Amino acid sequence: MCLKEAFFHIINVFGGTISL
């Protein structure tokens, strides 16, 4: 996994948390 993929993964996790 490259750094960019990990970065976007974290963004998606935070996005899901905010949605809830």
Return the average pLDDT rounded to an integer.
86
SSE class: mainly alpha
Q: Which sequence of SSEs, written as H and E, runs from N to C?
A: H
Radius of gyration: 9 Å
The largest β sheet comes out as: none
Strand segment tally? 0
- Low-pLDDT runs of 5+ residues are none
Residues in helix, %? over 70%
**Quick one: overall form?**
rod-shaped
The CA-CA distance between the termini, in Å, is: 27 Å
Protein described:
The chain has 20 residues and is mainly α. 85% of the residues lie in helices and 0% in strands. The protein is built from one helix and no strands. The protein has one helix spanning 3-19. The termini are far apart.
